[in-house]
């Protein structure tokens, strides 16, 4: 089979897998309503806290953080755990039987997840902006788009890496994801600034910067709220681009390894493990 | 080139530090245009072999080829020309319709949109799923879900179809539909072939050109159904009809060195096998109001009078004793018993 045939097969696979995700959004709209409402309730609590403290300038920070939080939730539960769930429902066997690349299947999941979550995230941003008196100072929309895309790609790269680990480790990986949830909320500065503030010592800031969400939220706030341009977020953009490439490469290597180990151990399709 | 060649394949699982041999040096081949039935009890190694051929599991040692492709080294080429349908498995995403699911699977094989549409229409027609074309899968009955599952198995027009208990839990009509379809599918193109595992021996007898019996990871018989039945000629298959029934039949028969099977007087589907040496033999009380039939496989015909006598001595009324043609079930039980001994 030629390279172009292979490429076409994988593009079709990506599209088909993304289609399933997007169809899910329209077929079960109540899920989307819940996934917009719940983060709005959480961020409202922080907005009221800042209003009480008179720190009005942080209201927009919270709304941007709340909108980006939707991506982290989707990466953790809609992406990382996906192969594990596919295994439990029996769908993984169909994927593993097909000649399509496993990465194409994961990319399809990621693309579908990105599209759905972008809709939810924009809804949170729009409703939050309507509900609370916040203002933005966007001067460089191209930089905003670039940072947003890099953040989302790096985040989903991380999701693909976790999904590969879930393939072999199943529930154990699920517990790790559970454990990761709150520390990531804390470190990534969803409801307060991290990188540009003195809340955390520098060492913690460096660790936090490995999480694409931290860098992404910080850069988006700088561009969207503080009116900064691409020149002010060069470091963020570089780090996000490196993270995006590195995470995708590592995810590919780990996925291959996990598939091979699973087939050797006979755990590839073993359910409820 | 054959459709399938399995050469000295062994698969060992590590279960809590204990080595479990699922396949023990299996050798097997399937010719093009052939349907091979793989029979064996639960845990015999049927699904393990199927998973190896489907590239879902790696063998511990040995080689397997599908239409000349090595299932380990050329896994991707193998995946293009095979498909696998298992009984009771999920046929797709519940939120998607029958048509959408088939389209989705067609894309995993890179089908062009126009080809996919044509194939999907044909499969929906062949599987008699027209009225459910736009129905979401979670609303389908078990039988129609399995029809969709089978349609999925044909979506890439495979050369080798692996069927792992495809009629499991299906009613007679759905099971017959599936059997008829797979027989026709191979007949329509003799370059195709099927490996079928089933617990329904009548199904294997109806559909398969060859039968392999697998027992504890080893192939213990490998012939056409007719040849296997002929292999029982040194034994005698006898059918004893009883007018009345008794719960003691099991205990009476188990005293003799025979393989026997107790059947309800009218309903063959309720039969069960009992091996006198088997530790897990049990009687589920198939002692109907319309009498009882007992099928015996005995090595020595002279044993029959003493068996009849022991039944009569316990108050059972024998209406007839006749020699019978061996069925595949007789063969299966005989082989398993021989290896258990």
Explain what you see.
The complex is a heterodimer of chains A (273) and B (341). Chain A has 273 residues and is an all-alpha fold. Chain A is built from eleven helices and no strands. In chain A, helix 2 runs antiparallel to helix 3, helix 7 runs antiparallel to helix 8 and helix 10 packs antiparallel against helix 11. The longest helix of chain A has 32 residues. The radius of gyration of chain A is 19 Å and the shape is globular. The model of chain A has no long low-confidence stretch (mean pLDDT 89). By secondary structure, chain B is an alpha/beta fold. Chain B has two domains: 226 residues, 3-Layer(aba) Sandwich (Rossmann fold); 92 residues, Alpha-Beta Plaits (2-Layer Sandwich), CATH 3.30.70. Chain B contains eleven helices and 15 strands. A six-stranded mixed beta sheet of chain B has the order 6-7-8-3-9-10, with helices on both faces. In chain B, a hairpin with a 2-residue loop joins strand 4 and strand 5. About 6% of the residues of chain B have low confidence. Classes of the chains: A mainly alpha (273), B alpha/beta (341). The interface between A and B is medium-sized, with 33 and 34 residues.
Task: Write a compact overview of the structure shown.
The complex is a heterodimer of chains A (273) and B (341). Chain A is built from eleven helices and no strands. With 273 residues, chain A is mostly helical.
Keywords:
heterodimer, A: 273 residues, mainly alpha, 11 helices, B: alpha/beta, Rossmann fold, Alpha-Beta Plaits, 2 domains, 5-stranded antiparallel β-sheet, globular
The number of domains of chain B is: 2
Which percent range fits the helix content of chain B? 25-40%
CATH superfamily membership of the largest domain in chain B, which one? P-loop containing nucleotide triphosphate hydrolases
Largest sheet of chain B: 6 strands, mixed
Task: Output the radius of gyration of chain A.
Answer: 19 Å
């Amino acid at each position: 089979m030629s390279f172009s045939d292979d490429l076409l097969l994988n593009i079709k696979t990506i599209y088909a897998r993304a289609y399933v995700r997007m169809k899910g959004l329209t077929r079960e709209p109540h899920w989307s309503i819940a996934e917009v409402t719940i983060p709005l309730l959480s961020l409202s609590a922080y907005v009221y806290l800042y209003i009480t403290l008179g720190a009005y300038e942080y209201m927009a920070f919270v709304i941007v953080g709340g909108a980006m939080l939707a991506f982290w939730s989707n990466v953790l539960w809609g992406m990382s755990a996906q192969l594990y769930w596919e295994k439990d429902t029996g769908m993984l066997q169909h994927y593993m039987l097909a000649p399509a690349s496993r990465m194409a299947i994961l990319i399809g999941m990621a693309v579908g997840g990105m599209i759905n979550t972008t809709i939810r995230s924009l809804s949170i941003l729009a409703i939050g902006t309507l509900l609370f008196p916040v203002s933005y100072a966007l001067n460089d929309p191209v930089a905003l788009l670039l940072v947003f895309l890099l953040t989302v790609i790096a985040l989903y790269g991380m999701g693909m890496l976790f999904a590969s680990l879930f393939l072999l480790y199943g529930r154990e990986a699920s517990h790790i994801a559970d454990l990761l949830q709150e520390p990531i909320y804390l470190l990534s500065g969803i409801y307060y600034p991290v990188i540009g503030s003195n809340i955390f010592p520098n060492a913690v800031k460096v660790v936090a910067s490995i999480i694409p969400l931290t860098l992404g939220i910080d850069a988006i706030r700088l561009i969207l709220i503080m009116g900064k341009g691409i020149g002010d977020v060069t470091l963020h953009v570089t780090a996000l681009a490196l993270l995006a490439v590195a995470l995708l490469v590592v995810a590919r290597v780990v996925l291959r390894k996990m598939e091979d180990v699973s087939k050797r151990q006979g755990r590839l399709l073993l359910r409820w493990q | 080139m054959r459709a399938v060649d399995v050469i000295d394949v062994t698969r060992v699982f590590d279960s809590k530090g204990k080595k479990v041999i699922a396949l023990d040096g299996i050798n097997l081949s399937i010719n093009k245009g052939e349907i091979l039935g793989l029979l064996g009890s639960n845990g015999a190694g049927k699904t393990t072999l199927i998973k190896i051929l489907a590239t879902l599991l790696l063998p511990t040692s040995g080689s397997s080829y599908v239409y000349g492709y090595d299932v380990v080294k050329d896994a991707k080429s193998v995946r293009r020309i095979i498909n696998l349908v298992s009984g009771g498995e999920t046929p797709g995403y519940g939120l998607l319709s029958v048509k959408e699911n088939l389209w989705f699977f067609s894309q995993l094989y890179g089908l062009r949109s126009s080809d996919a549409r044509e194939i999907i229409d044909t499969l929906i027609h062949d599987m008699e799923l027209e009225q459910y074309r736009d129905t979401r899968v979670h609303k389908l009955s078990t039988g129609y879900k399995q029809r969709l599952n089978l349609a999925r198995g044909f979506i890439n027009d495979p050369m080798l179809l692996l069927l792992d208990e495809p009629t499991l839990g299906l009613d007679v009509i759905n099971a017959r539909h599936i059997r008829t379809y797979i027989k026709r599918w191979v007949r329509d193109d003799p370059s195709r072939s099927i490996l079928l595992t089933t617990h329904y021996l009548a199904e294997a007898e109806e559909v398969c050109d060859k039968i392999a019996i697998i027992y504890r990871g080893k192939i213990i018989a490998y012939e056409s159904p007719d040849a296997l039945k002929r292999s029982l000629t040194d034994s005698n298959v006898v059918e004893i009809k009883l007018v009345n029934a008794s719960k003691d039949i099991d205990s009476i028969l188990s005293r003799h060195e025979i393989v026997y099977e107790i059947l309800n007087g009218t309903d063959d589907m309720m039969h069960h096998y009992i091996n006198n040496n088997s530790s897990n033999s049990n009687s589920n009380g198939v002692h109907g109001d319309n009498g009882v039939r007992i099928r015996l496989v005995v090595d020595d015909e002279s044993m029959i009078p003493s068996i009849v006598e022991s039944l009569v001595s316990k108050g059972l009324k024998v209406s007839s004793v006749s020699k019978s043609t061996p069925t595949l079930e007789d063969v299966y039980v005989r082989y398993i018993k021989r290896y258990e001994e």
